[in-house]
Write a structure and sequence with these properties.
five-stranded antiparallel β-sheet, six-stranded antiparallel β-sheet, QDO-like, alpha+beta, RmlC_Cupin_sf, Cupin_2, Jelly Rolls
Length: about 170
């Protein structure tokens, strides 16, 4: 039976053997805890965001809640229709069924931990990392369907424009 002990969490956060997956321009993701590590309860993903990078397009998931915890820098998030800032040590809850996104609109790199519960969606980052070339909205949308998720590309364009982010 899986038990989230302080040691298990410290081990996950210390993992540097997990590959960095290039999912979107200016964003690399590292899978620290998979659903297979937690009996499907949750997954833990670290995202490294370059300055002015969109961490996740505006999307919603049918099955999972997420918590985005800022480790360094400042990240902004859209959650429940509101834009909020999270400085290092702060977190933002992104509920299933609600449109949400996160980004780094600052001039310094940022790092976040994303806790996704229940597990399963972490596999999307592996699939996304296998795509080469520029962002293809149609390909990402088709992939998302298999994970019970959907993107809002119009809202994403608005977030990118308002915050002077790089995305393509």
């Amino acid at each position: 039976m899986f038990e989230l002990t302080p040691q298990a969490l410290a081990d996950a956060l210390g993992r540097r053997d997990a590959p960095l997956l290039p999912c979107l321009p200016g964003v690399q993701s590292r899978l620290l805890m998979h659903g297979s590590d937690t009996e499907g309860r949750f997954s833990l993903v670290q995202h490294l965001l370059d300055p002015r990078a969109l961490g996740a397009p505006v999307h919603r998931r049918a099955r999972e809640d997420a918590y985005v915890h800022a480790l360094s820098g400042e990240v902004w998030a859209l959650s429940n229709g509101e834009e909020r800032k999270a400085a290092a040590g702060e977190r933002i809850h992104q509920q299933r069924g609600q449109w949400h996104a996160f980004w780094n609109r600052g001039d310094e790199p940022a790092s976040v931990l994303e806790i996704i519960a229940p597990a399963g969606f972490e596999k999307f980052f592996g699939d996304c990392g296998a795509i080469s070339g520029p962002v293809d909205e149609n390909v990402l949308s088709e992939m998302a369907v298999g994970y019970g998720a959907e993107f809002d590309w119009s809202a994403t364009s608005d977030v990118v424009r308002r915050n002077a982010l790089s995305f393509r």
